[in-house]
Write a structure and sequence with these properties.
By secondary structure, the protein is an alpha+beta fold. Strands 1-2 form a two-stranded antiparallel sheet. A hairpin with a 4-residue loop joins β1 and β2.
Length: 77
């Protein structure tokens, strides 16, 4: 386990060993999830490998149609 601290601007430094292990480079974006029951904040780096693992997971769910319908509803007066 490695520890780090937060800056006055709310930034967290991720130790270099962790960055190397997960392929985190400058500009890597993260999803932030919370586990209220356990009192944890979960950072998930959005790397090429992460996106490739998601490929096909939502096939057949009609997500694109749902998104288009939502956008149409937002534009209605």
């Amino acid at each position: 386990m490695q520890t780090t601290s937060i800056t006055s601007k709310g930034q967290i430094v991720i130790p270099s060993a962790v960055r190397r292990r997960f392929g985190i480079t400058e500009g890597t974006r993260f999803t932030v999830e919370t586990d209220e029951a356990a009192g944890r904040i979960i950072l998930i780096p959005i790397t090429r490998e992460y996106v490739e693992r998601l490929r096909g997971r939502f096939r057949g769910k009609g997500l694109l149609a749902a998104l288009a319908a939502e956008k149409r509803r937002e534009k209605e007066p």
